[in-house]
Specification:
It is a single chain. Helix content is 57%, strand content 21%. It contains seven helices and eight strands, in the order αβββββββααααβαα. A three-stranded antiparallel sheet has the order 3-2-5, with helices on one face. Strands 6-7-8 form a three-stranded antiparallel sheet. A hairpin with a 5-residue loop joins β6 and β7. α3 packs antiparallel against α5 and α6 crosses α7. The longest helix is centred in the N-terminal third of the chain and has 56 residues. 12% of the residues are buried. The mean pLDDT is 79.
Length: 299
């Protein structure tokens, strides 16, 4: 049988073993906690970076203004007074919004129906070149909005065309297209500049009337051409007759002057006779005529 001292020694050994096991378990837990802390420490920057990237992608604080564009910033619903040029710009998400507007020259081709002064309907096809004033895009956006073409440009252009064309008769409009075009361009430039739009060119490419009216114009032009042709012929005949009268009067006047001169100067009569003599002696001589001596040339 074991003695009491042996039992005590065995108990002390057991307690020591249990203490060692407990200490080793605590060390294991401490090491494990340290590893976890190290992982958290090194993983935190990565997590923060990922969150930052997600934030930038979702909020997009950078905006790009392309070539031929201008940018507009809107802060809490209020348009800022500055226009932003081409390049990269920074905005504050949830506080600012950004819009871009094209300031390059635009070209529109449209057709509209109008009435002339003599109540003839005409279909006008026109081309207009325009651009937004680059330093006024914020004003245009604030006062009109992005859809300024249908809101301002088209109504002003068509109203001006109707007003100018309405001052011309249909046939006169065709002959004076350039003047009517210039009047329209001048008025558009003055009116639209107040709305921050520059009009650089305007052309009426086609003016079409009804078939009936166009046939009437053709008939009238043909009749006018025939009348002009007949008038020119009459003028030509009259001019030829006038020239003949003038020639006859000149000839008669010349003959009268010659006759008067001959009657007043007998030597001139003899001179004229000599000038007209053909070298043959007359067979009969009238009284008072100048005698001629027949000279036979020697052989």
């Amino acid at each position: 049988m074991r003695t009491e001292s042996e039992w005590k020694a065995e108990r002390v050994e057991f307690l020591n073993e249990r203490r060692k096991f407990r200490n080793s378990g605590e060390e294991f837990l401490i090491k494990k906690e340290r590893k976890m802390m190290d992982k958290k420490f090194f993983g935190m920057p990565i997590l923060v970076l990922c969150l930052l990237v997600c934030f930038l992608v979702m909020c997009n604080p950078f905006v790009m203004v392309g070539p031929g564009e201008r940018g507009i910033k809107i802060r809490l619903g209020e348009v800022e007074p500055e226009c932003y040029g081409e390049g990269l710009h920074l905005i504050f998400p949830f506080i600012q919004k950004f819009r871009t507007m094209d300031v390059k020259t635009q070209r529109n081709t449209l057709t509209t129906a109008v009435y002339t002064k003599d109540i003839q309907q005409a279909r006008i096809t026109y081309v207009i070149n325009y651009n937004v004033q680059p330093d006024k895009v914020n004003k245009l956006f604030q006062e009109v909005g992005m859809d300024y073409v249908s809101t301002i440009l088209t109504p002003v252009v068509e109203g001006t065309i109707k007003d100018i064309i309405g001052k011309w008769n249909a046939q006169d409009l065709i002959a004076n297209r350039e003047k009517a075009t210039g009047d329209i361009l001048f008025r558009l430039q003055n009116q639209l500049s107040d709305n921050y739009i520059n009009v650089t060119d305007f052309q009426m490419t086609e003016i079409n009337y009804s078939d009936v009216f166009e046939r009437a114009i053709e008939s009238k032009v043909t009749a006018e051409q025939e009348a002009l042709k007949a008038k020119n012929k009459t003028v030509q005949v009259q001019e030829e007759a006038k020239q003949k009268v003038i020639a006859a009067e000149a000839e008669a006047k010349s003959m009268a002057i010659r006759a008067k001169a001959l009657s007043q100067n007998k030597s001139l009569v003899q001179y004229e006779a000599v000038q007209k003599w053909d070298g043959k002696m007359p067979q009969y001589m009238l009284g008072g005529s100048m005698p001629f001596i027949n000279v036979t040339p020697s052989k």
